[in-house]
Design goal:
By secondary structure, the chain is an alpha/beta fold. It folds into two domains: 2-257, Rossmann fold; 283-513, no CATH class. The chain has 20 helices and 21 strands. The strands form four sheets. It has a ten-stranded mixed β-sheet, sandwiched between helices. Strands 11-21-18-19-16 form a five-stranded mixed β-sheet, covered by helices on one side. A hairpin with a 2-residue loop joins strand 8 (238-243) and strand 9. The chain starts with a helix and ends with a helix.
Length: 514
């Protein structure tokens, strides 16, 4: 039984809601929202915990609908909830079907737009890519439902949570009904729904997210909560966040302010003045997707390198550069590295065949490991020159860089440069601005590490995200506005806080602003 349960979870990406917690959710909806639904609908109902809890808690329920693809779950739930429904005189219709291709007219034909409809449940907590890697058949149709453009639709931004897809599907289907949607989901799903609401024509008059401890409920570690959305005449583009165990006091509000999406509206309004467009272009580091082959040790005294598989190799130095990963960005000044990286191109899609002539030892090394390099899964390598990399251009070879890891909650900006000559490269989990001038790079690093920018970033970034700081977030830092809010004395104080000895003058700062 346990073994079967694990296989089912891996296949369908589900975490079954404990009965006690489903009942707590229903009690909250009844108590705080003053809601007594006529119709209850649970998509992806699994073992039917929300159907059962809804029938037990709400007194006016006359009909219940549910969809579940898993036949084992369907049979168990149908037997259980049918017995409860008969006692309560509730009509119940369950469908053993795939929600991604389900015809919702099967439900809409049985309800009116005046009925008080509650859609409640716990959709799968995995992404489409994760289900795809499991070779699961329980995946949505591969359309560009998030309306992405160009490269975004080919790369990581096209990955999405299954719950997000289902929620947008339900919002679109029932936007003209007297409907409340209450779903358990990850914090990232709630954020994405609110962020993307502007793209769609449904109006949500109430959006709230009640955070709970997913470790206690599902034994997983991530920010999770109960997302509640109610349709109305006015569109609300922000979400109030509460603690599920103490839902009286609001923790924060995230959403849209003056066409800007922010994580903490209360704190953001204090830092509004530096939100804009960065005067410098933030870039992402090198994407190679094969660290076993491409990442090397520092050069050994005998002229060799060691790759990540422990192989000692001899290759030409022309294509080898010092290298930093996200985990290396911990201090404000970085001038040395413990690793190197092979850089096969100077710009995207540059022909790599010339390496045969200019660096035959390197070409032989790459060919010897072609099985690893040629099977890189990302679609960006399709039809690209052999052994290609991405995130490469003139900006990669700037001698000075101001860099940040995308992963860490506390934004540390580092001035990165190599005293020995070759520019230091960064991996694709880092973001950076490239400079030719040391003093300019140094001042930008100080500005970004000043509290004015630090607090602003924390008000617009979602710290529960896997990658809180992205190019979109960083490009909103207007460096000029920040500089005008930070005095020369403030910057000197920042150098002391960061324990940096280098000095610069007030004229240097004024010249930078000019």
């Amino acid at each position: 039984m346990i073994g079967n349960r694990i296989e089912i979870t891996k296949e369908f990406g589900d975490y079954q809601t404990p009965d006690y917690f489903a009942e707590r959710v229903c009690q909250y909806i009844k108590r705080e929202l003053k809601l007594e639904p006529d119709i209850v609908f649970e998509p992806t109902f699994g073992l039917g915990s929300f159907i059962e809890a809804s029938i037990n808690v709400f007194t006016h329920v006359k009909s219940v609908f549910g969809i579940e693809i898993n036949k084992n779950y369907f049979d168990i739930s149908q037997k259980k909830v049918s017995q409860i429904a008969n006692k309560k005189d509730v009509d119940i219709q369950l469908f053993n079907e795939d929600i991604f291709v389900f015809d919702f007219d099967n439900i809409k034909n049985h309800i009116s737009k005046e009925d008080n409809l509650l859609i409640i449940g716990n959709p799968p907590w995995v992404t489409n890519s994760e289900l795809g890697s499991m070779e699961s058949e329980n995946v949505p149709i591969k359309d560009n439902f998030k309306r992405l453009n160009g490269m975004d639709a080919l790369t990581g931004k096209s990955n999405f949570d299954i719950a997000e897809y289902i929620l947008l599907q339900l919002l679109g289907e029932f936007k003209n009904y007297n409907c409340t949607i209450a779903m358990l989901c990850k914090g990232t799903v709630a954020r994405n729904i609110v962020r993307d609401a502007k793209k769609f024509d449904f109006k949500l008059s109430d959006i709230r997210f009640l955070v709970f401890d997913a470790r206690n409920v599902f034994r997983i570690t991530c920010e999770a909560g109960l997302l509640i959305m109610r349709f109305g005449n006015e569109q609300k583009l922000f979400c109030d966040v509460y603690d599920f165990d103490n839902p009286i006091s609001k923790k924060r509000t995230f959403g849209w302010v003056n066409n800007k999406f922010v994580s903490d509206i209360g704190n953001y309004t204090q830092r509004l003045s530096i939100d804009g467009s960065c005067q410098f272009e933030w870039r992402q580091g090198i994407k190679h997707d094969c660290s076993k082959v491409m990442v090397l040790s520092k050069k050994h005294p005998d002229g060799t390198y060691t790759n990540s598989m422990g192989e000692k190799i001899v290759i030409e130095d022309d294509y080898v550069y010092p290298f930093l990963k996200s985990s290396d960005i911990k201090s404000p000044i970085i001038t040395s590295t413990t690793k190197n990286v092979i850089v096969t191109q100077k710009k995207i899609r540059e022909d790599t065949n010339k390496i045969k002539e200019t660096a035959p030892k390197l070409w032989l090394y790459l060919e010897q490991h072609s099985a690893l390099l040629d099977k890189r899964k990302s679609s960006i390598y399709k039809n690209a020159p052999r052994f290609s990399i991405f995130g490469i251009g003139d900006y990669s070879f700037k001698p000075y860089k101001v860099a940040i890891s995308g992963f860490y909650k506390d934004p540390v900006f580092a001035l990165v440069y190599n005293k020995q000559g070759k520019p230091i490269m960064l991996d694709d989990t880092c973001y950076f601005i490239g400079f030719n001038d040391f003093k300019q790079a140094f001042i930008v690093m100080l500005i970004l590490n000043n509290s004015v920018v630090q607090e602003f970033l924390k008000s617009i970034a979602f710290l529960d995200s896997k990658r809180p700081y992205t190019k979109e977030i960083l490009m909103r830092i207007d460096i000029l506005k920040a500089a005008k809010n930070i005095s020369f004395d403030d910057l000197i104080a920042t150098t002391k806080e960061l324990h940096i000895d280098y000095t610069f003058t007030k004229d240097d700062y004024n010249n930078f602003i000019q």
